[in-house]
Design a protein that fits this description.
This protein is an alpha+beta fold. Helix 1 packs parallel to helix 3, helix 2 packs antiparallel against helix 3 and helix 3 crosses helix 4.
Protein backbone atom coordinates (compact mmCIF):
# COMPACT_ATOMS: atom_id res chain seq x y z
CA UNK A 1 0.00 0.00 0.00
CA UNK A 2 1.22 3.48 -0.79
CA UNK A 3 2.60 5.32 2.25
CA UNK A 4 0.02 8.15 1.97
CA UNK A 5 -2.91 5.71 2.03
CA UNK A 6 -1.34 3.67 4.81
CA UNK A 7 -0.82 6.75 6.99
CA UNK A 8 -4.40 7.85 6.31
CA UNK A 9 -5.62 4.42 7.45
CA UNK A 10 -3.54 4.62 10.65
CA UNK A 11 -5.05 8.04 11.41
CA UNK A 12 -8.58 6.76 10.80
CA UNK A 13 -7.93 3.93 13.26
CA UNK A 14 -6.71 6.40 15.90
CA UNK A 15 -9.73 8.62 15.26
CA UNK A 16 -12.17 5.72 15.77
CA UNK A 17 -13.43 5.86 12.20
CA UNK A 18 -13.73 2.07 11.74
CA UNK A 19 -16.22 -0.28 13.41
CA UNK A 20 -15.03 -3.24 15.50
CA UNK A 21 -15.96 -5.63 12.69
CA UNK A 22 -13.95 -3.63 10.15
CA UNK A 23 -10.97 -3.49 12.51
CA UNK A 24 -11.09 -7.28 12.93
CA UNK A 25 -11.00 -7.73 9.14
CA UNK A 26 -8.14 -5.24 8.80
CA UNK A 27 -6.25 -7.03 11.58
CA UNK A 28 -6.71 -10.46 9.95
CA UNK A 29 -5.56 -9.12 6.57
CA UNK A 30 -2.54 -7.40 8.13
CA UNK A 31 -1.63 -10.63 9.93
CA UNK A 32 -1.73 -12.54 6.61
CA UNK A 33 0.32 -9.80 4.97
CA UNK A 34 3.10 -10.42 7.51
CA UNK A 35 5.39 -7.60 6.40
CA UNK A 36 6.49 -4.44 8.22
CA UNK A 37 3.42 -2.51 7.11
CA UNK A 38 1.16 -5.35 8.29
CA UNK A 39 2.84 -5.50 11.69
CA UNK A 40 2.53 -1.74 12.07
CA UNK A 41 -1.17 -1.90 11.21
CA UNK A 42 -1.74 -4.75 13.69
CA UNK A 43 0.02 -2.79 16.43
CA UNK A 44 -2.09 0.31 15.71
CA UNK A 45 -5.33 -1.70 15.92
CA UNK A 46 -4.28 -3.42 19.17
CA UNK A 47 -3.19 -0.11 20.70
CA UNK A 48 -6.46 1.58 19.73
CA UNK A 49 -8.65 -1.29 20.94
CA UNK A 50 -6.80 -1.57 24.26
CA UNK A 51 -8.08 1.87 25.25
CA UNK A 52 -11.23 2.31 23.17
CA UNK A 53 -12.76 -1.13 22.51
CA UNK A 54 -12.05 -3.65 25.29
CA UNK A 55 -14.23 -6.34 23.71
CA UNK A 56 -12.23 -6.21 20.48
CA UNK A 57 -8.95 -6.08 22.42
CA UNK A 58 -9.84 -9.33 24.23
CA UNK A 59 -10.53 -10.97 20.84
CA UNK A 60 -7.23 -9.82 19.34
CA UNK A 61 -4.94 -10.36 22.32
CA UNK A 62 -5.27 -13.76 23.97
CA UNK A 63 -5.67 -13.43 27.70
CA UNK A 64 -2.42 -13.90 29.49
CA UNK A 65 -1.99 -16.96 31.68
CA UNK A 66 -0.10 -14.71 34.05
CA UNK A 67 -2.19 -13.25 36.84
CA UNK A 68 -1.39 -10.05 38.70
CA UNK A 69 -0.01 -11.74 41.82
CA UNK A 70 2.23 -14.10 39.86
CA UNK A 71 3.49 -11.26 37.66
CA UNK A 72 4.27 -8.97 40.60
CA UNK A 73 6.01 -11.73 42.56
CA UNK A 74 8.05 -12.71 39.48
CA UNK A 75 9.21 -9.07 39.27
CA UNK A 76 10.12 -8.99 42.98
CA UNK A 77 7.15 -6.88 44.16
CA UNK A 78 4.99 -7.49 47.19
CA UNK A 79 2.03 -5.85 48.91
CA UNK A 80 0.03 -6.01 52.13
CA UNK A 81 -2.81 -8.06 50.64
CA UNK A 82 -3.16 -9.52 47.13
CA UNK A 83 -6.94 -9.13 47.15
CA UNK A 84 -7.26 -5.41 47.81
CA UNK A 85 -3.86 -3.86 47.00
CA UNK A 86 -3.69 -1.32 44.19
CA UNK A 87 0.05 -0.74 44.38
CA UNK A 88 3.09 -2.91 44.97
CA UNK A 89 6.60 -2.34 46.29
CA UNK A 90 10.02 -3.78 45.47
CA UNK A 91 12.38 -2.52 48.18
CA UNK A 92 15.43 -4.09 46.53
CA UNK A 93 14.88 -2.13 43.29
CA UNK A 94 13.38 0.85 45.15
CA UNK A 95 10.36 0.77 42.85
CA UNK A 96 6.59 1.12 43.20
CA UNK A 97 4.24 -0.48 40.65
CA UNK A 98 0.65 0.48 39.95
CA UNK A 99 -1.81 -1.41 37.79
CA UNK A 100 -3.33 0.92 35.19
CA UNK A 101 -6.87 0.15 34.00
CA UNK A 102 -7.22 0.25 30.23
CA UNK A 103 -10.39 2.30 30.84
CA UNK A 104 -8.52 4.96 32.88
CA UNK A 105 -6.26 6.24 30.09
CA UNK A 106 -6.66 9.96 29.37
CA UNK A 107 -4.66 9.58 26.17
CA UNK A 108 -2.03 7.18 24.83
CA UNK A 109 0.58 8.05 27.48
CA UNK A 110 -1.35 9.33 30.50
CA UNK A 111 -3.45 7.23 32.87
CA UNK A 112 -5.15 7.80 36.21
CA UNK A 113 -3.57 5.34 38.67
CA UNK A 114 -5.17 6.62 41.87
CA UNK A 115 -7.95 9.02 42.78
CA UNK A 116 -9.24 10.49 46.00
CA UNK A 117 -12.67 9.42 44.69
CA UNK A 118 -11.59 5.78 45.11
CA UNK A 119 -11.12 6.00 48.91
CA UNK A 120 -14.30 4.05 49.59
CA UNK A 121 -14.79 1.82 52.61
CA UNK A 122 -13.61 -1.62 53.64
CA UNK A 123 -10.90 -2.98 51.40
CA UNK A 124 -10.97 0.06 49.09
CA UNK A 125 -9.89 2.19 52.05
CA UNK A 126 -7.05 -0.25 52.75
CA UNK A 127 -5.86 -0.24 49.12
CA UNK A 128 -6.03 3.55 49.00
CA UNK A 129 -4.06 4.09 52.22
CA UNK A 130 -1.40 1.57 51.15
CA UNK A 131 -1.06 3.36 47.78
CA UNK A 132 -0.50 6.66 49.61
CA UNK A 133 2.26 5.02 51.68
CA UNK A 134 3.88 3.80 48.46
CA UNK A 135 3.65 7.30 46.95
CA UNK A 136 5.43 8.60 50.05
CA UNK A 137 8.30 6.17 49.35
CA UNK A 138 8.75 7.89 45.99
CA UNK A 139 8.59 11.38 47.51
CA UNK A 140 10.75 10.73 50.57
CA UNK A 141 13.07 7.82 49.74
CA UNK A 142 13.73 8.11 46.01
CA UNK A 143 11.71 5.13 44.81
CA UNK A 144 10.64 5.12 41.15
CA UNK A 145 7.25 4.51 39.55
CA UNK A 146 6.37 1.67 37.22
CA UNK A 147 3.02 0.85 35.63
CA UNK A 148 1.52 -2.24 34.02
CA UNK A 149 -1.76 -2.40 32.12
CA UNK A 150 -4.83 -4.19 33.42
CA UNK A 151 -7.91 -5.00 31.35
CA UNK A 152 -11.14 -3.97 33.08
CA UNK A 153 -13.57 -6.88 33.26
CA UNK A 154 -16.67 -5.15 34.58
CA UNK A 155 -17.81 -5.18 38.19
CA UNK A 156 -18.64 -7.85 40.74
CA UNK A 157 -21.91 -7.95 42.73
CA UNK A 158 -20.42 -5.44 45.22
CA UNK A 159 -19.60 -2.95 42.47
CA UNK A 160 -15.86 -3.59 42.68
CA UNK A 161 -13.86 -3.68 39.46
CA UNK A 162 -12.73 -7.08 38.18
CA UNK A 163 -9.48 -7.77 36.34
CA UNK A 164 -10.06 -9.53 33.01
CA UNK A 165 -6.34 -9.79 32.28
CA UNK A 166 -3.04 -7.98 32.46
CA UNK A 167 -0.25 -7.02 30.11
CA UNK A 168 2.78 -8.40 31.96
CA UNK A 169 5.13 -5.57 31.03
CA UNK A 170 6.36 -2.94 33.49
CA UNK A 171 6.81 0.54 32.04
CA UNK A 172 8.65 3.40 33.73
CA UNK A 173 6.46 6.34 34.61
CA UNK A 174 6.41 9.75 36.18
CA UNK A 175 3.43 10.66 38.35
CA UNK A 176 1.82 13.99 39.09
CA UNK A 177 -1.25 14.93 41.10
CA UNK A 178 -3.93 16.94 39.30
CA UNK A 179 -6.92 17.82 41.45
CA UNK A 180 -8.10 14.54 43.01
CA UNK A 181 -6.20 12.27 40.58
CA UNK A 182 -2.68 10.87 40.43
CA UNK A 183 -1.77 10.63 36.75
CA UNK A 184 1.07 8.49 35.44
CA UNK A 185 2.85 9.48 32.26
CA UNK A 186 4.22 6.26 30.81
CA UNK A 187 7.52 6.35 28.96
Amino acid sequence: MKPELFNKMLKRISDGYYSSDKLQVLYANAEKQGDEQGRKLMAQIVNYSQYQDTVLYKKLVPESDVNRKQFMEDEGFTCANWLWSWSFVNHEKKAIAFGAWNTAYIDENNVVILSENWKGEDREALGYSQALKHIDLVKNEGYSYQVFNMIHGGHDSNGRSKIAGIDPVLKNATVRKEGVDWIATVS
